[in-house]
Amino acid sequence: MSETTKFLLSETDLPKDWYNVSPDLPSPLPPPLHPGTKQPIGPEDLAPIFPMEIIRQEVSQDRWVPIPVEVRDIYRLWRPTPLYRAHRLEAALDLPDRVRIFYKYEGVSPSGSHKPNTAVPQAFYNKLEGVKRIATETGAGQWGSSLAMACAFFGIDLKVYMVKISYAQKPYRRALMEAYGATCIPSPSMDTNAGRTILANDPDSTGSLGIAISEAVEDAATRDDTKYALGSVLNHVLMHQTVIGQEALKQLEMAEAWPDVVIGCAGGGSNFAGLVLPFIREKMAGKDIRIIAAEPAACPTLTRGTYAYDFGDTSMLTPLVKMHTLGHSFVPAGIHAGGLRYHGMAPLVSHLLEHNLIEAQAVKQRAAFEAAITFVRSEGILPAPEPTHAIRLTIDEAIRAKEAGESKTILFGLCGHGHFDLSAYDSYLSGSLQDYEHPQEAIDAALAELPVISA
Amino acid sequence: MSETTKFLLSETDLPKDWYNVSPDLPSPLPPPLHPGTKQPIGPEDLAPIFPMEIIRQEVSQDRWVPIPVEVRDIYRLWRPTPLYRAHRLEAALDLPDRVRIFYKYEGVSPSGSHKPNTAVPQAFYNKLEGVKRIATETGAGQWGSSLAMACAFFGIDLKVYMVKISYAQKPYRRALMEAYGATCIPSPSMDTNAGRTILANDPDSTGSLGIAISEAVEDAATRDDTKYALGSVLNHVLMHQTVIGQEALKQLEMAEAWPDVVIGCAGGGSNFAGLVLPFIREKMAGKDIRIIAAEPAACPTLTRGTYAYDFGDTSMLTPLVKMHTLGHSFVPAGIHAGGLRYHGMAPLVSHLLEHNLIEAQAVKQRAAFEAAITFVRSEGILPAPEPTHAIRLTIDEAIRAKEAGESKTILFGLCGHGHFDLSAYDSYLSGSLQDYEHPQEAIDAALAELPVISA
């Protein structure tokens, strides 16, 4: 072996700007619509819940948006993150020299995932505009704990509405948020009208991400000192994550490699976009590259959803955005990759698929964990359940290239470690993990509830 | 801010040798004694359970022992590890410029702690000598999972005897070992004479580290294809960990800083020694430096134990070593810092204390977690319960220097992240965490059972 394994950048190589793909798109993004009037919304519609700089970034046409020095100071606690040549995985797969695998690892952040890349700037802009308190929702807790850390850095109070069933099942995620100083309560709660209404109808409600979003948005909209923050889907969130792909580009240059294929897992879309958008820019400039989104077969937004205007939440309170969706009433099965259980997909990622700039493939969770076991026994790092989907596709691509006699360089995103997710591994290793695939009728039924938008 | 925060070395700066302090000691280490004859043991006594290269390293008088290229290839998956200037912690403590805090972070390893630094070479030397299978014990699972990873890299079968109560309480640590391919069973088990004997007398035994050691040693001693491996205490284990301190020395040079104080937590002693031995060498060469071992008040080996020959296990099967001990029958309270719950201390560390080359201070766990909360809310990284003891002493030293108007640079070891330990934080934050301090009679009673060695 003895070749370079880990490509590290110095602190001075930390990106100075986020990359905003909007001005480079082949056609403009369809505008978000007001949930009531179904007319395009303006900044004033978002001002009650977001700070102005976030709203500005959401619609910005600047290709490069400077990263504030205060944000870079925090990024450098864990950034630049390493890019690895997967020598040992290649050996485990018995790949020839012409088939190479690289991965970019975000699990070195304090919360163990890519989420702090956007949590930190969001907290910072709120701080700049005098916001004292933020409300957000969280499912399994990765976003909630990352924002809790960011709020601790800037002295902002945080209230996290955590889906009640997760709150009960994952007390340690709550403990992590509390260690950072956040307040975390089970949703639906008695603290909001939305929560009280749900509880009046169903006192035993176990909650949902849709309900928790409604509670957090109401909290922010009804308190002068409070704004709202979201961990994926929106343009500014995806843009903040582009530090991942920008670093990976530099690191592949150090490795004297160019990827034929880039693979990332896609739930709401921010991890995927953060890795691939800088490569999309190269692709639009003429570089030869395939870009693949790996999604779960149990929530196949890109591969089986439709491209249409839909609500971001199940309660139909958010603006309508044009995206690949399974319908806001679609309920994904309880797969372990909680971060991939979202009925929609970021409008930007959806737009790229419509323009054939990316591809998408669905992966079943048993096949994903099988790939994860091959990975952890060769590379040592235990992947979170979400990126196991990307690992599965990476291994499949590598084996195909080996068998076809082709040369191929593959880059995939390892967006987090699995130290919080050992129950999923326990379930897989004990043989009790199930595959889920929704019958077409279930998807058709949810799609039948899409809102009707006159063109 | 905008000053350098994270001092990173390149792969080429990874140490090429381990530092062996033995030839530099002011007097030789007292020899280990045979548990039956009470006479000094020789290599032949250890050959049934350890590979020859490990035995050679255990008694080596070479100051520098080359790190094999195969081991360095794996080290570089996570090494060199970062050294941080704790700018944000300093700000949170309102320290003047003349008081500076640095920390060396080992939590970036795949298993989240310093343990792989010795697991990898131990597995490698076993592989070299044709060993097909290793047996070991584990308490909470940090050592078991690190050795499981190392064995996966070299294709060695691993059987881990895990203390039964931990096996039941921490199914996810078991799942991590199994993800790496190891077999993990609760101890006492029916697989060994030692286990069967215990179970015959007490079918409900919840096990202990002492029992698990007995089972693993018996397993290795009675099978030709199997050796035993230990995760702390012994000289070779401490030596493998010196990559930590060697890197820290280089990184402080980059930072143009010299530490007035170095602080590490000490359980069996390998993490502490790994950080401080390279600084001990500088101290013996005349450099001005204080070196402090942070231990739990609930298991105060160095501060309240005695320096005497004692058994390494509670079952009195291991060789006798001269060390600071609370007596092999001492049962520490159930503090969350499982890695610090050992009745003895590495003979090397004990010897350094006898020669006044180090100091020791005991810390209560509530005070330790209080410091950890200050740390996580400023630096972002959630510490494992063990290094919270070092953080407590670091903060105390810093505040004292600030109040006394002194200049002071402090380095401490952050040997692991706390993502596996959120139940401990939950317990602290909910107010249910208790302090434990053993009454002197309990310690005296255990010390009365020390073996009598004729001089």
Kindly state the mean pLDDT of chain A as a whole number? 94
**Radius of gyration of chain A (Å):** 21 Å
Which fold name is given in CATH as the topology of the domain at 6-12 and 69-112 and 236-447 in chain A? Rossmann fold
The pair of chains with the biggest contact is: A-B, 50 and 50 residues
| Physical arrangement of strands within the biggest beta sheet of chain A | 1-4-5-15-10-11-14
- Determine and state the CATH class of the domain at 6-12 and 69-112 and 236-447 in chain A: Alpha Beta
Determine the number of helices of chain A (DSSP H or I, runs of at least 4 residues).
Answer: 19
* Strand composition percent of chain A: 15-25%
**Which consecutive residue ranges of chain A, at least 5 long each, have pLDDT under 50?**
none
Q: Give a short account of the largest sheet of chain A.
A: 7 strands, mixed
Write up this protein.
The structure is a homodimer of 455-residue chains. With 455 residues, chain A is α/β, with parallel strands linked by helices. Chain A has a domain of 263 residues: Rossmann fold (3-Layer(aba) Sandwich), CATH 3.40.50.1100. Helices cover 40% and strands 16% of the residues of chain A. Chain A has 19 helices and 15 strands. In chain A, strands 1-4-5-15-10-11-14 form a 7-stranded mixed sheet, with helices on both faces. In chain A, strands 8-7-6-9 form a 4-stranded parallel sheet, with helices on both faces. Chain A is globular. In chain A, 58% of the residues are buried.
